[in-house]
Amino acid sequence: MSSYAEKVLKQVKRDNPGQPEFHQAVAEVLGSLKLVVDSDKRYEKAGLLERLVEPERVLMFRIPWVDDKGRVRINKGYRVQFNSAIGPYKGGLRFHPSVNLSVMKFLGFEQIFKNSLTGLAIGGAKGGSNFDPKGKSDGEVMRFCQSFMTEMFRHIGVDTDIPAGDIGVGSREIGYLMGQYKRIRNEYVGVLTGKGLSYGGSLVRKEATGYGLVYLSEEALNARSDTLAGKTVTVSGSGNVAIYTCEKAAQLGAKVVTVSDSDGWVYDPAGINLDVLKQVKEEERGRLTAYAERVKSAEYHARGNGSVWDVTCDVAFPCATQNELDEVAAAKLVKDGVILVAEGANMPTTAKGTDIFLENSVIFLPGKAANAGGVATSVLEMSQTDTRLFWSFEKVERKLQTIVKHIFTSIDDAANRYGVRGNYVVGSNIAGFEKVADAMMAEGIV
Ligand code: NDP
Ligand code: 2IT
Predict the structure, then answer these.
(1) How far from chain centre, in Å, is Cα 386?
(2) How far is the CA of 321 from the centre of ligand 1 (A)?
(3) Cα–Cα distance between 166 and 171 in angstroms, integer?
(4) What's the mean per-residue pLDDT of the chain?
(5) In the Cβ-directed half-sphere of 419, how many Cα atoms lie within 13 Å?
(6) Degrees (nearest 5) of the Cα angle 131, 302, 95?
(7) In angstroms, what is the span from residue 91 Cα to ligand 2's centroid?
(8) Residue nearest to atom 13 of ligand 1 (CA)
(9) pLDDT at 1
(10) Which of 127, 203, 251, 282 is most buried, by CB atoms within 10 Å?
(11) For residues 333 and 313, what is the distance between their CA atoms, to the nearest angstrom?
(12) What pLDDT shows up at residue 2?
């Protein structure tokens, strides 16, 4: 008997040529969903998987802007509104030269299940541009963001689609995007999250992805009567997610010994100095060479000279970008005795790398569960912007912790129900799918 999930995967590969990241994300999810959909003919009859893998809408647009020398520049803009079965589209915007349709679609697809796992009413989307904010002046970034919003405003809205940040889109970019939206629409609404605290933002949103990643890891360790305290931790990346992963891990008593950026990586056996890291990355928008110059205990390795995964650790948190941890790195981590790997980034581990962790009983927490604290806190921000009533840091953090506990229970329970105890890849895919599938069945063929 041929498998429904396998048939749909074949169609996805045939009908979406040249989109390897999208194929990879779909292959992983459908590989898990086989357990659910192949034995229940109602799904195939409703064309559920065929609808699930096809975005409801893909917007692609031109973003013209003028640089500081007066030259006209053109970038590509995207918003993939993937699935709105359980709520309005929600997901970040990425500004990075590597952005293309395949990357946008893989991220939008992942976001469907991640958003469902939060237990909140949000559909999945992603957007962005191949614009590179690095080396651009504030004025250039502002004009680019204004041009981006001048097209995107007509496709988004508080009850339609609520974008946020991702790689290359932080508080500066969200501010410029919000300013332009407000100006065009003449209304102040929470159409973006990740806003500054002076104009409708939420405490803890900045920290939320990294904190959520560490909380979920602590839950998974606690379930095995273990804890993060005393563990040696390696982190990749040094952006928003990486910084607040380092912060919470250190608060819980772990020692974080690495961070990286696209030029190189740092090994700091004394434990990453967060004040210096924040100063270099958040204030100066500098490179990690500046960290190594200021912190005597740090060793700097330029790109091409090994990677953070060469450092022996108990826990690894990949927090930079997709496919940054391959099977060679995974095998090395396993050999060195890694206990837990949790994905702060979206799909940072390759398919083969993931298999190695699962085969070797490493606790592996996939991005759609592990980094969901960011988008969950975006929903907490939406509530506050809408009511114009703002909550304390402690209140938002408590709500985030409750959501993360719920995520752990759901993915652990789904893995147990389907007979793959401790396999959080399958657990996350199935637990994320169930609510979306229910809604799609109930809403008819749309
Ligand atoms: P930032 O832009 O703040 O930081 C990205 C970091 O990763 C930087 O250190 C960057 O180095 C490095 N990096 C990015 N792309 C590459 C690349 N191609 N090669 C090497 N290094 C790279 O982004 P975030 O911290 O927000 O995002 C990091 C990851 O977390 C992404 O996968 C994102 O999708 C995911 N994520 C983010 C959430 C959020 O709320 N921000 C929520 C959930 C997931 P450099 O500066 O040199 O480019
Ligand atoms: O990948 C992600 O979940 C994000 N970049 C955050 C999305 C959001 O809407 O807060």
Answers:
(1) 24
(2) 6
(3) 10
(4) 98
(5) 2
(6) 15
(7) 5
(8) 320
(9) 52
(10) 127
(11) 8
(12) 79
pLDDT digits (tens, 9 = 90+) for 85-118: 999 999 999 999 999 999 999 999 999 999 999 9
Ligand 2 neighbourhood includes 208 CB (under 6 angstroms) = no
Kindly report the number of other CB atoms within 10 A of residue 44's CB atom. 16
For 181-223, the pLDDT digits (tens) are: 999 999 999 999 999 999 999 999 999 999 999 999 999 999 9
Ligand 1: atom nearest CA of 347 is 32
Residue 95 zone, left/alpha/beta (φ > 0; ψ -120 to 50; rest): beta
Looking at residue 349, its amino acid is: T
Q: What is the largest CA-CA distance in the chain?
A: 64
Tokens 């969200």, residue located = 174
Q: Report yes or no: 352 and 221 within 8 Å, Cβ to Cβ.
A: no
Q: What is the mean pLDDT of residues 247-269?
A: 98
The string of pLDDT tens digits covering residues 52-72 is 999 999 999 999 999 999 999
Active-site residue, selected from the candidate residues 10, 76, 105, 126: 126
